[in-house]
Specification:
Strand content: under 5%
Number of helices: 2
Structural class: mainly alpha
Distance between the termini: 46 Å
Oligomer: single chain
Shape: rod-shaped
Order of helices and strands: HH
Number of strands: 0
Helix content: over 70%
Amino acid sequence: MNRNTHEEERKKVEKATSMERLGWIELLVSIGTLDVEDTIY
């Protein structure tokens, strides 16, 4: 079992997840943050 391969796969997944989060943040900002902030806080 190659642990290095597993580590690289995990990094790819983490990178994809963070990119996805950035996409969501940009989407929310473009919609309008005031309504979103009222809902969150």
